[in-house]
Amino acid sequence: MTSKIDAIVVGAGASGAVIASELAQAGLKVVCLDKGPKHTTQDFQLKQDEIRYYARGSLVPSMDTDPITWRETSQDGDGELAPWAAGPLGTANPLHLPPSLGAGGGTVHWGGACWRFRETEFRMKTEIEERLGKSALPEGHTLVDWPITYADLEPYYDKAEWELGISGRGSNVAGRPELDENPWEARRQRDYPMPPLRQGTADIEFSEACSRLGYHPFRTAAAIASEPFKGRSGCTYCGFCHGYPCHVDAKTSTHVAALPYGEASGNLEVREYCRVYKVNRSRDGARVTGVSYYDADGRSVDLEADRVVLACYALENARLLLASGINANGQVGKHLMTHAFGFFMGLTKEPSNPYMGTLVASTSIEDFSGELVHEHDPTVLWGAPIISWPGDYQPIEIAHAMPPSAPRWGAGFRDWMRDNYSHVWSMYSQTANIPTTDTYVDLDPRRKDPWGQPALRMTHGWGEWDQKMVEFLLGVKRKIAREMGLTYWWEETTKPDYHLSTHEVGTHRMGEDPTISVVDVYGRSHECENLYVVGGGQFPSYHGYNPTETIWAMAYMTADSIIGRSAPGPVTEHGHVGDRHASHNHSH
Amino acid sequence: MTVDHSKAADGLTALTFLNDAEARTVEAIAERIIPDGGDGAGAASAGVVYYIDRSIGGVSTHLQHVYRTGLRALDRYCLNERSAAYIGLTADDQDGVIRHFLGPEQTEVGTTPQLFGDEEGERDDADLPILRRLFAVVREHTIEGFFCDPVYGGNRDAIGWKLVGFPGAYWGYTAQQMGPGFDGRSLPIKTLSDLRAQLQSLPDNSTFTSNQES
Ligand SMILES: Cc1cc2nc3c(=O)[nH]c(=O)nc-3n(C[C@H](O)[C@H](O)[C@H](O)COP(=O)(O)OP(=O)(O)OC[C@H]3O[C@@H](n4cnc5c(N)ncnc54)[C@H](O)[C@@H]3O)c2cc1C
Ligand code: SF4
User: Fold this and answer.
1) Would you call B63 and A90 a contact, using CB atoms and an 8 Å cutoff?
2) Which residue among A97, A101, A107 has the greatest number of ligand 1 atoms within 8 angstroms of its CB, and so is best to mutate?
3) pLDDT in tens, A541-574
4) Same domain flag for B156 and B180
5) In chain B, which end has fewer C-beta atoms inside a 10 angstrom radius, N or C?
């Protein structure tokens, strides 16, 4: 690799790997730094291991190396180490920690639920104000509309689906009127490149119950290959999916779906175990000159480049900006949003065999999404899809998710697990808190990580308005549970004790006005002209959907902007709609 | 006495951190947390204590002090309050001790189990925080050791998995196995060791990916 580097990309996760690979394929010399390892599929052949990945969280940062402190409001003192993130053994469910370690980032072990946001989500604030009145939003809220629309992102959603591999069945596909399961799907230029994943039987019961209730079930799209895709295997339904890496590369992790294409160009060097601690700036501060990182042996290394892309997740992106003093307008870290899951677990009459398949071989309904909820209850600010989570549950995970009424130890505990484990089934929804002046991240005033860097502090609570969204959707879930004939069910509270959901967003908001946002629509910093800060941190508002397909779409947009390339045009010559194979070959 | 050089123990019941007395106490606690229901499936027969011993000897060294000082405190408590060490108590009395520090088996719906010491109690009894912590840690470790892959030292003979009907480490499941009416209990249990032995002879992934029922 030559000494001149066109771009340093910090973080080889969902967004970073896509951008690094796109830039490298366009001829830029790229170095991608990640604090974790560069995984290989070989490493994961025996990944069917609940101790390693779930109980000990071997793919997620721990509170020892990457401490995060939390307080509910800014009136609550300095903050304590995030209490939900370290159980009795000092570990926690990977779903409530920052999502990542190593190439692929969160996508190495994610669920892979994929969504395009609907048109109205991009103007959530206006929709709420027009429908419910200006006073409907809570005092101190900082919600804004997106500076882009669904139409701006559509070509990039399409690109993410076809380049990276997302399976599903569209409902509003140009020229395909027969596809119409989800009446509220935004218009799409073509279908997904692969059909939906195979459902388990309990999921079919969910779908049928929803239909009987007059709802409109459709298959959840998934970043999992349902058939061989670009040299990757189709899913084998191994049942160790959510929170686990994939042993056959069916799961779309960017370490297999993006990085290899960048590396094949000869222009991308991925450096593992490099922990970036500072972004360096020119004397006048208008530009960045590169980054400083600690290598695996703890040595500090300075690296220079023409531009820097921060892609280390919404939380670490904000922490790095703050630790590097890049926050002239005071906007970095503000507007934190995250999801409450409204988990709803139940027991099916017939065995659900929850150890098979993947959670995302699932079904969803959008009948209560976004503004649609207002017709049912105008006191609920914003709705969300209800999504089945039909399995992919291992025994320790279930021992942690038992109903509050079940015995916690003793013969009763043992017997509960014996009688019920193979009947467990669940559904969830995702509602985001409305951002306010009191939901944000900053640097902890005291706590440091083992490298002497300031820890990130979260200030975040669930408002009554947030809890109302969860409660409304729990009500719908109860109806579905009854209709399905679940023999027993239990629910997560409307005010969960966690404030990390792996879906943190908003912390480096994008916008056109440089005084009230951190980056522009391409993720480019308003403060340093050759610095990009990308990922869910860009989201101006947040809704009922998993974030990553939108993070990917925006990452492609950033790459195009850096390369000076226009947005992909409508798909024409290489694949009429529904023709899967033509465009595989075309892509690389 | 001559040593028989032709036979060696398999190394599955030796200890890497706990001393013998500590191991007996831990095993006794674990057995009350997941007791044998008469079918042979309990924490002791699953070898939970060996899971715990290897965990704290290896990856969770930060918990060594919880066991070492906690178990000493437990003996002090049991001798003072019940005139015998923990392992000398009846099963009912052992449960009483656990209830005292971990809370009742079944909590009222809506109350959050208290995992670590409340401050009021701590003032009266210096040992209370470590004892509460010890029981919270042992409970967690017992669940892990009962359901872990046997390679970690617990879940011997896949006792925990057999009890709940978890087939273990599978490369994949076929359309037929995921279909209606399939009896999951008919699947042979596979450990990671079994799967590793089969890596070279696995069927093609299409066996699992394909939706054609064969
Ligand atoms: C268990 C689980 C399930 C999930 N399920 C879903 C789902 O179903 N659908 C969905 O849309 N999303 C899901 N997510 C969330 C998804 O993983 C994230 O939205 C996504 O990965 C975020 O992308 P990112 O590029 O911002 O960050 P990441 O993918 O987290 O990548 C950040 C990268 O930066 C590296 N890094 C961090 N700090 C530094 C530093 N200082 N120096 C160098 N490198 C650094 C990290 O090692 C990591 O590789 C899930 C996450 C988890 C953990
Ligand atoms: S369920 Fe499918 S995608 Fe998930 S890890 Fe297993 S094989 Fe991979």
Assistant:
1) yes
2) A107
3) 999 999 999 999 999 999 999 999 999 988 764 4
4) no
5) N
Backbone angles phi, psi at A362, to 5 degrees: -130, 180
Q: What is the mean pLDDT of residues A375-401?
A: 97
Complex confidence, ipTM: 0.94
Question: Could you identify the atom of ligand 1 that is nearest to the CA of residue A535?
Answer: 26
3-state secondary structure chain B: CCCCCCCCCCCCCCCCCCCHHHHHHHHHHHHHHCCCCCCCCCCCCCCHHHHHHHHHHCCCHHHHHHHHHHHHHHHHHHHHHHCCCHHHCCHHHHHHHHHHHHCCCCCCCCCCCCCCCCHHHHHHCCCHHHHHHHHHHHHHHHHHHHHCCHHHCCCHHHHHHHHHCCCECCCCCCCCCCCCCCCHHHCCCECHHHHHHHHHHCCCCHHHHCCCCC
DSSP annotation string for A431-491: EEPPPBTT-EEEEEEEEE-TTSPEEEEEE----HHHHHHHHHHHHHHHHHHHHHT-SEEEE
Contact B184 A88 (CB under 8 A): no
For residue A233, the ligand 2 atom closest to its alpha carbon is 7
Same domain, B87 and B156: yes
Q: Six-digit token pair at A400?
A: 């942690």
Domain count, chain B: 2
> Considering only alpha carbons, which residue of chain A is nearest residue B36?
A411
Q: Which residues of A141-179 are buried (b: 16+ CB within 10 A; e: fewer)?
A: bbbbbbbbebebbbbbbbbbbbbbbbbbbbbbbeeeeeb
Domain boundaries, chain A: 7-582
In tens, the pLDDT along B97-128 reads: 999 999 999 976 655 444 444 444 445 688 99
pTM above threshold 0.90 = yes
Using the predicted structure, report yes or no on whether residue A134 has a pLDDT greater than 80: yes
Interface contact flag, B149 A350, Cβ < 8 Å: no
CA distance A335 to A508: 8
- A7-582 homologous superfamily: FAD/NAD(P)-binding domain (3.50.50.60)
| Residue A579 neighbours by CB under 8 Å, 6+ apart | none
Assess contact for A63 and A81: CB atoms under 8 A. yes
CA proximity to A116, closest of A63, A36, A185, A48: A185
pLDDT at position B92 is: 97
How far apart are the CA of A66 and the nearest CA of chain B, in angstroms? 17
Residue B5 is assigned to a structural domain of this protein: no
- Do residues A410 and B33 make contact, with C-beta atoms less than 8 angstroms apart? yes
Is A239 in Cβ contact with B102 (below 8 Å)?
A: no
Q: Are residues B44 and B139 in the same domain?
A: yes
Instruction: Kindly report the nearest CA distance between residue A518 and chain B, in angstroms.
Output: 40
